[in-house]
Structures are given as C-alpha cells and as structure tokens.
Amino acid sequence: SRNVAVVYGGADDTNGASNWLTQANHWDGTNWSAPPAENGSLGVGPGRRIQFPMLYDSQRQRVVMLYGTGGENGVACSLPGASCTDLWSLTSTGWTRISVVGTTRPNETLFSNSVVYDSKRDRYLLWRPASQSVIETWLFDPNSRTWAQLSGMQVSDNRQKAVLVYDPRRERTLLIGGPTFSESPRYLEVW
Q: Residue 2 and residue 42: Cα distance in Å, rounded?
C-alpha cells in the first residue's frame, strides 16, 4: 500500500474538443504525480477509455480496471464508443492484462456500474444496471480468473451510478445512493 489514490484516463473536453486520456496519475493528498509504471518502459496499458470502474486489490497490491467504453487507438476496444470487455491491473511494475477463463461473464454493455474488492472472500463484486428494469450482480474470482453471476441482491427500485463500499469490520458490502434512470430523484439510501 502506497497511500495514494489512482485515477486513469477519461476525456478532457477543454475548448469543446474531446481528448481521450491514457495516463494514470497518483494523488497523495497534496500532489499529483505519474506512477512508476507510466515511465514508458513498462508495457502497453488499457488504452483510451471512459466509464470504467476501478478497485484496489489489497491482497495483490494492485489497482484493477474493469471494462469501460473505448476511445481511439485503445488496445482492447479500438473504436470510439466501443465497449471494452477486458480487465487490467496496475502495480508498481506496470500494466498487465488479466485473462479471464471461461465464457461466463458480464456482457459488454456495462454502464453506470460499481465494483468493490471483498477482502474477506478475496473476490471482486460488480453491481450493474443492465437496463432500466434489470440489475445484475457478478463475482470475479482473481485466483481462478472466472466470473459467476449472483442473484438475490435487491434494492427498492432500479438505479444507476450507485457506489459500492466494502466494510471489513462487518464483512459486508454496502450499496449507497444512485439516481433512477431518469436522473431523479437522487437516493441517499444505504443497502
């Protein structure tokens, strides 16, 4: 653990032009800096993309990026607006693509999704509104590199852009907030 927040990519709409960004940056609470993996000699990363969730895997000491929407010249999803279906990890030694085993996995149309690392069970939990009427919950096992779909996670109504937080003391995951698909009203509920 290096006690920094990591941000990656996105789009810079300065002066009305959308410029897709491909750099990871660290925030230590005072200053921004490029992580060691961004020195150009540590391999190709996930390419240009937006709308992706990231988590910190404390057991493997890595940041993990899941899916997203691709930009120009992206590695896994080369067309602007294309859905990315890959997973990447960032450590102090660089980017690594995580190869998924099997064909069971969330479909590529991920949007407004949330992800969290469950350190007790060593799993990544992905919560995603698949549409205005369908919510999906998926588990990724980083050891076997396989996905499994879960059932039973119900909220009062369908929402998007919610936040997942893992509470290690109580060994549970919390779903916080998220507006409906019409963006109104915004919920401050905790599930």
A: 19
Query: What phi, psi does 36 have (nearest 5°)?
Result: -55, -30
How far from chain centre, in Å, is Cα 115? 6
Using alpha carbons, select from 75, 21, 83 the residue that is nearest to residue 52.
83
pTM of the predicted model over 0.85: no
**Confidence band (pLDDT; 50, 70, 90) for 110?**
low
pLDDT recorded at residue 138: 86
Which of 119, 153, 121 is closest to 138 using CA atoms? 153
Instruction: Kindly state the DSSP code that residue 15 receives in the 8-state scheme.
Output: G
Q: What is the pLDDT of residues 9-25, one digit of tens each?
A: 777 777 655 666 777 77
Contact 19, 12 (CB under 8 A): yes
> From CA 106, how far away is CA 7, in angstroms rounded?
23
Tokens of 110: 């991920």
Whose CA is closest to 124, among 191, 46, 51, 57? Answer: 57
pLDDT of residue 117: 94
The mean of the pLDDT values for the chain is 76
Measured CA to CA, the distance from residue 49 to residue 108 in angstroms comes to 14
Under DSSP, the state recorded for 182 is T
Residues 64/80, Cβ–Cβ less than 8 Å: no
**Tokens at residue 28, please?**
């230590």
